[in-house]
Specification:
The chain is mainly alpha-helical and about 180 residues long. The protein contains five helices and two strands, in the order ααααββα.
C-alpha cells in the first residue's frame, strides 16, 4: 500500500497518546513488580493490583497508541490481493478502505462513549478482596484512543481525495 503522511497535528496527537500508553505500560510493570515484592517479602500484596492492571494499564496500553500506529502506518497490512494494484486502482481502494474504517470507528466510538457515560453515571467499581476500585474513568480511554485514530484516518482519507487519484502507469510490453 502507498504510505500517506498524516501531517504534524495527527502525528503530534498520536505521539502524545502513544507516550501516555507507554507511561501506562511502565507503571504497570512497576506496579506488578512492587506487588510481587510486597507479596513475597512481607506477605502483604497491594490490594486491587489485578483490577487496576486490567481496567487501567492494559486498556491504556492497547487503545491510546492507536492514533500513532495509524499515523505511522504501523498496522499490519495483508497485500495478498493488492500487490499488483497501482495508480488509480490502488488509490481508489485506499480511499474506500479509509471510508469503511471511518464508518467502523464511528460505530465503535459511539458504543464506547455511550458505555463510558453509563458507567460514569453508575460510578462503576470492581470489588477487590477488601475494598472497591473505581473503574469508570478507564471507560473513557476507549473513545479517546479510538477518536485519536479516527482523526488520523479522516485526515489521511481527506488528503487522498484532495490530492486526487494517480494515473495508471503505462502497460509494460510483454516479451
Amino acid at each position: 500500500m502507498v504510505p500517506l503522511k498524516a501531517g504534524k497535528i495527527p502525528e503530534t496527537l498520536g505521539g502524545v497518546l502513544a507516550i501516555a500508553g507507554g507511561i501506562a505500560l511502565t507503571l504497570m510493570m512497576v506496579h506488578i513488580v512492587i506487588d510481587v515484592a510486597m507479596k513475597y517479602l512481607f506477605n502483604d500484596p497491594i490490594d486491587g493490583t489485578t483490577e487496576i492492571v486490567a481496567a487501567y494499564y492494559m486498556v491504556s496500553t492497547v487503545f491510546l497508541p492507536l492514533a500513532y500506529v495509524t499515523a505511522t502506518k504501523g498496522h499490519l497490512i495483508v497485500e495478498l490481493f493488492t500487490t499488483r494494484l497501482t495508480g488509480r486502482k490502488l488509490d481508489l481502494l485506499t480511499a474506500l478502505t479509509g471510508l469503511i474504517t471511518l464508518a467502523y470507528l464511528a460505530f465503535l466510538i459511539y458504543c464506547t462513549l455511550d458505555e463510558a457515560i453509563l458507567r460514569t453515571i453508575d460510578g462503576e467499581a470492581w470489588e477487590t478482596s477488601v475494598d472497591l476500585v473505581a473503574v469508570w474513568p478507564s471507560r473513557w480511554l476507549l473513545p479517546i484512543g479510538l477518536g485519536g485514530m479516527a482523526i488520523v484516518v479522516i485526515l489521511q482519507t481527506y488528503r487522498r481525495f484532495r490530492d486526487g487519484l494517480r494515473p495508471e502507469p503505462p502497460a509494460s510490453p510483454h516479451v
